[in-house]
Amino acid sequence: MNGVDLSRVHLRALHSFQPQELHVAKAHRQVASLSNESSPSTSRVQEKGELFSIFSFLSWKDSNGLGSGFGFLLVSSQHRLLHLHAMEINHLLILAIIASSLFSIMAGKVDSLESVPDLEKAMYLTIDGYPCVRLLNLSGEIGCANPGRGKVVAPIVRFKNADEKLARSSAVLVSLDEMKNFFLRVSKDLNFAQKVAGVLVESKAVVQNDLPGFSPVEKFPQAEFAPYQKPSYEWNPAGSGIMWDRYNFPVFLLSKNSTLIIQEIASKNEKSNKAYPVDVAEFDLVMQTTKIGTHDSETCLKEQSCLPLGGYSVWSSLPPINVSSLKPPKPIILVVTSLDSASFFRDKSLGADSPLSGMISLLAAVDALSHIDGVNELRKQLVFVVFTGEAWGYLGSRRFLAELDMGSDVVSGLNITLIEQVLEIGSVGKGSREGATNFFAHVVGESSGAKEMLNALQGACDSLGSERIKIKVANNSNPGIPPSSLMTFIRKNLSASGVVLEEFNSAFMNNFYHSHLDDSSNVNSTSIVAAASLVARTLLVLAAGDSQSSTPVLNSIKINVSLVEELVGCLLNCEPGLSCGLVKDFITPSSICPNHYVGVFLGPPSALLYPAYVDDTSRFVWNFLADRTSIPTDNSSSCTGECSNPGEVCIRPERDGKGICVISTTRYVPAYSTRLKFEAESWHVLPANASDPMGMVDPIWTESFWDTISLRVYTVQSSAYDRFILLGGVAVTIAAYIAIIAARAFFTKALKHD
Q: What b/e readout covers 362-399, taking b as 16+ CB neighbours within 10 angstroms?
């Protein structure tokens, strides 16, 4: 677009509707640096490494059209085209400052621009938003990025309906209601897609019941990993699949405040009958993989322009496992859930219902079980696992089983052959509706172990003594279990029985599965509490046996409702977010707003008790589980890292460096693709292995590097206006210089006469 970089106008915060505009004409490619010194009288002309034109002119105008000041910028190159005496330059600057001040006084206001940051702040309005970024797999790319190595600048227009045509390359403002239709059209209409320079998606206060479903993933998420062949089945009816396409333009989800600003800008552009001036958006979403030209995971890992997706899962046992005990190990009941979600927008992946409601339910159940007596006498060992990376190829569960196969240190105390039953807690945040709470048990097979689990669930439900809470077996007409970590265990051909506890029967109740709209307003804490009660009692029935799980014993299990509500506020909201008291009691979070995107694996995978790079949520879960499943030591000592006695771990080490050593079997487990290996300081893709059926279909997800991500807006004038301002600046500066020469000659002559 001609003239984009030549003249830029600062857009004041539109909620204040200030009419004042700042027009800046620039010569050639780059504005020269202003001095950062606070005193204008001591400002120096900075030398630049490139050859520039020599003048730019700044002019202000208010709503009455009155000039309120002017100034100029003198640019010099290393070739020293301007051989000006230092005194002449000082005189020139002083004259310009005086003139600018006089004009400011005449207009009744004074604007101060003392440095480059001040100038940039006046010229540009930075927009808050959440980017869609570039991800890669073995077969190609998905997500969003600038098409080349430079920034994208385009006028802002509003997308009204699916049939609308774009007159020119534009930054398109899209409402939430139209987002699905817009991206589906982009995928099908090449001519339309070529006119899309960038996309700005509106945010607004969402009432989930008032919105149609929006899920950017498939109708059968991760169908390639399912232990049955029914890829056309629709577990996720709201799924559109738009997240899995490659978009050759930048896309940002706007914050609520930024939405209001951009809406006003789009309306202003729409009302204007002229091509210029026009308000534009500038997108900086350049991906390293685009720069280098690596377009799949294997290539970008070789060129080191990306990193694999992954993080750290957490497992813990109740009671702690004594690896040095001579007693035969107990059979294991594995209780699993996951903590990561996905979204079209990387940093807006809360996953409130799917899967965080299940994780919160598990934490509340562990808390309740930790308060009962006699856990050491249970016939079976309770082991809790919180996986990460499940939204991207079941990375956590696959790696967990691989570590069990290898007998590595991160799963010391566990034996894969001892796992008898697996209970997974899925989406349970929407089970309460119209005064009733219903959950569905999706069972694998008809083994005796599966029947025992169903009986335990029903017995636990009956012990609650409430007709409002019900547990039902999912329909036999379902093709199998829904997308879940339990699929990994089935594909592993384990003999363990398995049940997935969900809020739905044959299709997701969550209409915002893996979208940025799956937030705290999409769950009900009452439903999470009910699920936690059901899980805790079921586990006691399974682990203790009928003789030790009478109704009075089950009724002693109480879910801490306040804890559930606090976990919802901490993990699913920005206020209080990770700054809440519960989280800060265990860790020092790196951010306030929670985000449950899995992230990338930094550095080599670690088998250490305390890895170097672990995200906030995993660290909190580790500390919480270690605390709730622990046995206090006789002489509890403070710690900042590892404890000296075997079997002990240091919890709360980030809290003022005063952690406490407790006896607990709580460990981190790396979560990354089983087809990746870190060797010689880099990641390598391993050949597919028939013994790893899920690895055979593993896409191996990676995320591109980038330098900076930013979004800002400003106003652009026509190239003719740019030339006019430039010539005006040159004329004023030449006139000022002639005036100085004349004044010097006059005063020199006068002094000689004296």
A: bbbbbbbbeebeebeebebbbbbbbbbbbbbbbbbbbb
The answer to whether residues 579 and 594 touch, using CB atoms and an 8 Å cutoff, is no
pLDDT in tens, 92-149: 455 555 455 444 444 444 456 677 777 777 789 999 999 999 999 999 999 999 999 9
Q: Read off the amino acid at residue 473.
A: V
Is residue 295 within 8 Å of 136, Cβ to Cβ?
yes
**What is the pLDDT confidence band of residue 682, given thresholds at 50, 70 and 90?**
very high
What's the rounded Cα separation, in Å, for the pair 318 and 367?
Answer: 11
Other CB atoms within 10 Å distance of the CB of residue 693: 15
Separation CA 339–CA 356 (nearest Å) = 6
Tell me, what's the pLDDT at 210? 66
Q: Which residue has the higher pLDDT, 89 or 332?
A: 332
On whether the CB atoms of residues 666 and 382 are closer than 8 A, the answer is: no
CB proximity list for 2: less than 8 A, separation 6 or greater: 719
Please answer whether residues 698 and 674 qualify as being in contact, where contact means their C-beta atoms are separated by less than 8 angstroms: yes
Q: Tokens 């977010």 identify what position? A: 577
CA distance 362 to 365: 5
pTM of the model: 0.83
User: Pairing relation of β-strands 47-48 and 76-77?
Assistant: parallel
Strand, helix or coil for residue 695:
helix
- Condensed to tens digits (0 to 9), the pLDDT of residues 516-535 reads 999 999 999 999 999 999 99
> Looking at the chain, how many residues does it have?
754
Encoded amino acid at 109, one letter: K
Instruction: Give the Cβ contact number of residue 632 at 10 Å.
Output: 10
Q: With contact defined as beta carbons under 8 Å apart, do 518 and 350 qualify?
A: yes
- Could you report how far apart the first and last alpha carbons of the chain are, in Å? 61
Q: Within a 10 A sphere around the Cβ of 538, how many other Cβ atoms?
A: 30
Preceding omega of 687 cis (within 30 degrees of 0): no
Measure the CA–CA gap between 659 and 586, rounded to whole angstroms. Answer: 9
Q: Which position has the token pair 């070739």? A: 79
Q: Where are the alpha helices (DSSP H) in 590-683?
A: 616-628
Distance CA 425, CA 510 (A): 15
**H, E, C per residue of 204-215:** CCCCHHHCCCCE
**How many CB atoms lie under 10 A from the CB of residue 470?**
17
Contact 54, 82 (CB under 8 A): yes
Distance CA 422, CA 513 (A): 24
Query: Residue 287 has what DSSP assignment?
Result: B
Distant-in-sequence, close-in-space partners of 524: CB < 8 Å, separation ≥ 6: 429, 430, 431, 432
- In DSSP terms, 714 is beta-bridged to 280
Task: Give the distance, in angstroms, between the CA of residue 197 and the centroid of all CA atoms in the same chain.
Answer: 23
Which among 427, 508, 487, 488 is positioned nearest to 218, based on CA atoms?
A: 508
Distance CA 666, CA 677 (A): 25
Is residue 350's pLDDT more than 60?
yes
CA atoms of 208 and 201, how far apart (whole Å):
17
Say how far apart CA 592 and CA 579 lie, in whole Å: 6
Q: Are strands 332-338 and 419-425 parallel, antiparallel or unpaired?
A: parallel
Gyration radius from the chain CA atoms: 32
State the Cα angle at 662 between 658 and 665, rounded to 5°.
Answer: 125
Q: Which residue has the tokens 């017995």?
A: 459
Task: Check: CB of residue 19 under 8 Å from CB of residue 266.
Answer: no
Q: Are 737 and 92 in contact (CB under 8 A)?
A: yes
Whole-Å CA distances, 412 to 83, 229, 275: 76, 35, 69
Q: Are strands 497-502 and 419-425 parallel, antiparallel or unpaired?
A: parallel
Name the nearest CA neighbour of 672 among 313, 383, 334, 288. Answer: 313
Question: In the structure, what pLDDT confidence band is assigned to residue 81 with cuts at 50, 70 and 90?
Answer: very low
In this predicted model, which residue has the larger pLDDT, 453 or 110? 453
